[in-house]
Design brief:
Blueprint (H helix, E strand, L loop, with lengths): L7 E3 L10 H4 L6 H13 L4 E3 L8 H10 L8 E6 L10 H13 L4 E6 L5 H4 L4 H6 L2 E7 L3 H12 L7 E5 L6 H4 L2 H7 L3 E5 L22 H6 L3 H16 L5 H11 L3 E5 L3 H10 L6 H14 L13
Parallel strand pairs: 1-2, 1-8, 2-3, 3-4, 4-5, 5-6, 6-7, 7-8
Helix pairs in contact: 2-13, 11-12, 11-14, 12-13
Length: 314
């Protein structure tokens, strides 16, 4: 896809309630907290925002919509998702959920609309076709799909004259399953933008947390990552050393690595500094030698960060 910024900004941690930021990240954020975050991003040219109906069951979308609506619609690219598990049983459940998103955003189109997971590729992918035909969605993507599922979705869309424009999977230094399965290569060959989420592994690769300063207790991410922090120290130390030459943080090195791998990272932002970090990260160029060092240490760490919601990619 053309005219996209190098980084998308994620709002998984903005909503509250089921699958919301309060439970997953230990956050509790208000519009007042997030307004300067959104404004700073727009000024910096980071105008691609990723959310999902299921993040806080609409509350993440509503929070984002409040900011989007302060700007001309064409200035912001909205990416949101259809989650099969919450689908109704109407004539086109995909369109029904999309209509809810359109109402929350007070808009008549979504820039990128995703099938959130591959619960049933044959059943849900065709539901995107009338949305593309009507212009309610400009581009469609598939998230958490393996290579065979991506290819099948692309075939279904191609029969109606459309295509998968984007793939969104968990991809980081610690979790390269999409690369190993050939998904990155397939995307490159077929002009599909690969969106990488959890590039910072919910903070475990930010350099901010270690055994002396673990992730916030009581959050889902603390349960997942605190026990593996000792295994990550050699990797994050090397990332810190690599970043020091260009005055970059560990998090910025992780983001720069994802960009160097020809992916478009989605970075969750809750503070103005996160946006500023992302802007600087997009300007860092890692050498092949630096990439090799951190990839080798990441493999040596021996940590599997596949989420409970994810199927293997190969």
């Amino acid at each position: 896809m053309k005219n996209l910024p190098k980084i998308a900004l994620g709002t998984w941690s903005w909503g509250a309630g089921f699958a919301g930021g309060d439970q997953v990240f230990g956050n509790n954020l208000s519009a007042e907290d997030l307004q300067p975050v959104f404004d700073t991003a727009l000024k910096a040219g980071l105008n691609l925002w990723d959310t999902a109906t299921v993040y806080g069951m609409g509350s993440s979308e509503m929070m984002l919509a409040g900011f989007v609506n302060q700007y001309p619609r064409e200035k912001v690219l909205i990416s949101t998702k259809f989650t099969p598990q919450i689908a109704g049983d109407g004539a086109n459940p995909v369109e029904e959920l999309l209509n809810g998103s359109l109402q929350r955003f007070e808009t008549d189109y979504i820039d990128i609309y995703w099938i959130h997971n591959p619960m049933d590729v044959e059943k849900w992918t065709p539901g995107l076709i009338p949305l593309l035909k009507s212009g309610k969605v400009k581009r469609v993507g598939v998230s958490n799909h393996n290579l065979a599922q991506i290819k099948r979705a692309n075939t279904i869309l191609a029969e109606a004259g459309f295509k998968v424009s984007a793939v969104q999977n968990h991809y980081s230094l610690l979790y390269r399953s999409s690369e190993e399965a050939g998904i990155l290569d397939y995307c490159k060959e077929n002009d599909i933008t690969f969106f990488a989420y959890m590039v910072l592994e919910q903070g475990a690769l930010s350099g901010k947390y270690n055994t002396a300063n673990p992730l916030p207790e009581g959050s889902g991410r603390a349960q997942t990552y605190n026990k593996v922090l000792p295994q990550l120290e050699e990797l994050t130390s090397a990332m810190k050393a690599i970043g020091s030459s260009s005055n970059a943080s560990v998090a910025q090195v992780a983001i720069a690595w994802a960009i160097a791998k020809n992916t478009l990272p989605i970075i969750g932002v809750t503070k103005v500094s996160h946006v500023e970090d992302a802007v600087l990260a997009s300007q860092i160029r890692l050498t092949p030698q630096e990439i090799n060092i951190i990839e080798t240490l990441a493999a040596k760490a021996g940590v599997d960060t596949r989420g409970a919601w994810e199927n293997p990619m190969n």
